[in-house]
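Minutes, project check-in
Item: structure for the 56-residue chain
Input as provided by the requester:
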Amino acid sequence: MIRRYRLHEATERMARGDAIVWADLAGELGYADQAHFSRDFAALFGEPPTRYARRY
């Protein structure tokens, strides 16, 4: 449940058009590092956050 909330927050920021520094975002969402965030994101959405963000 917490993981889904974190990743939902990430997609909300992408949708708002916020400039995203991935390492900073990962830390703000409680991830130990950017790689952990990216793995969780890809596992849930089927693609890495950078590819997902290009659509916004």
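Outcome recorded: The chain is about 70% helix and 0% strand.
No further action items on this chain.
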